[in-house]
Amino acid sequence: MILVPKTKIDDYTARGWWGSTTLWNLFATHVRERPDAEAAVDACNRPDFAHGAPRRLTWAQLADEVDRFCGVLLQSGIRRDDILLMQLPNCVEQFVVYLSCARLGIVITPVPVQYREHELAHILSITKAVAAVTFARIGKPGGGHQSVEMFAGLQQSHPCLKNIFAWGEQVPLMATNLAAAMAVTDADRERLARAEREAAVTANDVFTICWTSGTEAQPKGVPRSHNEWLVVAPSVIEAGELKPQTRILNPFPLVNMAGVSSAFVTWLSLGATVVQHHPFSLPVFLRQLKEECINYTIAPPAILNTLLQNEALLADIDFARLTRIGSGSAPLSEWMVRGFAEKHGVQIVNYFGSNEGAALSGTYRDMPDPTARAQFFPRAGVEGFEWHLSTTRKIRTRLVDMETGEDINEAGRPGEIRFVGPTIFSGYFRAPELTDRAFDDQGFYKTGDLFEIAGDRLQYYRYVGRSKDLVIRGGMNISSEEIENLLLACPGVQEAAVVGVPDAILGEKVCACVVAAEGRTVNLEAITTFLREHKRVAVYKLPEYLLPLPILPRNPVGKILKRELREQAKSLAPQSAMLVA
C-alpha cells in the first residue's frame, strides 16, 4: 500500500533522504550479525498488568517468535495491504507484531490500551481492519480489561473484523490463542520465505496508521511509510548522541510518534536494546534506570522536576552512562534543565513533535545554555541558520499569522508554525477533507501550534500555546470537542465545555465546565459514569474535575471563552500542581 505521491518519492529519493531499506531489512541484519545479543526486555512489573513473567529476548529469539506469528497470519489468510489493529500494553509482543507486519506488508494500526468501543468503532469504520491482536487481560490480576470480549462485541457491527488473536491465560474461545497456535515447522518457514518474497515490501509502503486527536471530534489516522519513519530516527539518535547497541528505556506507549520513533525505529537503526515500561510508575522507572544500565530515556517535565526536587531518588543511577534524557509535551523548567546538567552531567533534550511528523529538537550541541534550551527551539529549516541536527537541513518551516496569512519574520509576534519536508505525512487516512484543511497552498502542514521568533539573531522559536483545542494529559492529546459533544447527551447537562487543569505529574487533567439543565443537578460521578459505561470512552479522557456554572462565558459572537474557563478551573487544582505548572 503506497499512499505517498510519486513526485514526493522521486524528490526525496533523489536528495538521498529516502532509500530502499525497510524496517524489516534492518531487523534481518541484526539477527544475522548479532543473534545472541539482547534485543527487547519486558517491564519488571509485567505481572501487574499482563499475563506471564517478564521476558528478555535476543535478536534470534525475537526472530523465531516473528516466524511463528507470521505463520498464524498466513494461516488466517491475512496478506499484504490488509490492516491489523493492535491493542497491547508495552511488552515484547509488540515487537513481534510490528516486525511481522513489516515483513509481510501488512499495515499495522496500533491503538492505546485505554481505547474502548467509542474510539475503536470509529477506527474500524475507517480502516476496515481484518484482524485485532491483544491480550486476554490488560490490567490488574483478577480483573483488568477483558479486551477479547470487547473486540468480539465489535465484530457484530464491523464484519470486516474476521480475526481476533490473543496472548494470555484462559483466552476466550472467540479468539485464536496465540500461545497454542504459534507452532512452526521447516515447511512453514519455507512457505513464509515464499510469502515474504511475494509481498515484495518496499520502503515506500505504508507501515503504520497511528491515531491523533485534534480539534475534530474523532481520532484521525496518520499513515507513515518505512521511509517516513526512518527519516525521523536522526532526530532521536543525533539529539541524544546515541551510539550503536545502546540501551533505551521506553516509558511512552508504543503506539505513536514518541514511542515508535525512539523505541522501535531508533532501536532498529542502532541495533539497540529496548527495555519496556508500563504503566508509568516512578518506583519501577527508577529501578529500571538503575538495574538495566540505561543509556537514554524520555520522561515528562513534571517527572524530571520531581526527581530533581528529591535527590535521594537519583541515588545509584549511573549518570556516567545515562547522559541524555529527552522531554517534552509541556514547557521545560530552566531550573530543571540547568540542575540536571550541573549536578549530574545530564543534558536534557527538549522535544516538540506530532504524529504528523512536525518536530523540533533543542539539543546540547546546538543550545548549550540551559536557559535557552528550556524555552526555545532552533529555528529549523529557515535560510540563514545552521544547526548540528541533520533533520534541520531536510525540512522547511514558516511562521504564519493566522488572521492575515502573512509570513512572520520579526520577534514577539505569535503565529502558527508550519512544516514541509520528508518527515511530514502525506495526508490523513481515507479523510480527504481533513487532509485538504491540514495543508496550506504552499504545501506546508498546518500544525495548529503557536510559536514566536526569539533570540538575539532571531535564531529561535518559542512555543506560545495551542490554537487547537486540546488537553494534554500525560503526553496524550484529548480533543475537548470530542468530550464536549458526548457530554451534551448526558442527562441533566444543558451546555458543556472542556478545558485542562494544571497537574504536577501529568501536566494537565480534564475539567468539565457544565451548565445544568433547568431543575437538574449534575455531579462528577454521574458524568464519568455516563462517559465510561454508556459512551465507552477511553478512561484517560474522563473528566477528573467538574466546574458547575450558571452560564458559559462567551464573546459577542457567541464563541465560548476558553481562556476564562481555564482561569476559573485553575482554582480546582491542588496548590502543588500550580507551583510546578
What's the arrangement of secondary structure elements?
Elements (H helix, E strand, L loop, with lengths): L5 H9 L8 H11 L4 E4 L14 E3 H17 L7 E4 L5 H13 L2 E4 L6 H11 L3 E5 L11 H9 L7 E5 L8 E2 H4 L4 H14 L6 E7 L7 E6 H5 L2 H5 L9 E4 L6 H14 L2 E4 L5 H10 L4 E3 L2 H9 L14 E5 L5 H11 L2 E7 L5 E4 L7 H6 E3 L17 E5 L14 E6 L11 H7 L6 E10 L5 E7 L3 E4 L2 E4 H8 L5 E11 L3 E10 L7 H11 L10 E4 L13 H9 L4 H6 L1
Question: What does it look like?
Answer:
It contains 20 helices and 25 strands. With 581 residues, it is of the alpha/beta class. The chain folds into three domains: 23-201, Rossmann fold (3-Layer(aba) Sandwich); 247-466, ANL, N-terminal domain (Rossmann fold); 471-580, ANL, C-terminal domain (GMP Synthetase, Chain A, domain 3, 2-Layer Sandwich), CATH 3.30.300.30. It has an eight-stranded mixed beta sheet with strand order 2-1-11-10-12-13-14-15, sandwiched between helices. Strand 24, helix 18 (524-534) and strand 25 (545-548) form a beta-alpha-beta unit. The two termini are 44 Å apart. Mean pLDDT is 92; it is low at 576-581.
Major sheet summary line? 8 strands, mixed
- What is the residue-averaged pLDDT? 92
CATH topology of the largest domain: Rossmann fold
Number of domains: 3
N-to-C span: 44 Å
Which structural class should the secondary elements be placed in?
alpha/beta
The CATH architecture of the largest domain: 3-Layer(aba) Sandwich
Q: How many β-strand stretches?
A: 25
How are strands sequenced across the largest beta sheet? 2-1-11-10-12-13-14-15
Low-confidence stretches: 576-581
Number of helices in the DSSP assignment: 20
Global outline: globular
| CATH class (first level) name of the largest domain | Alpha Beta
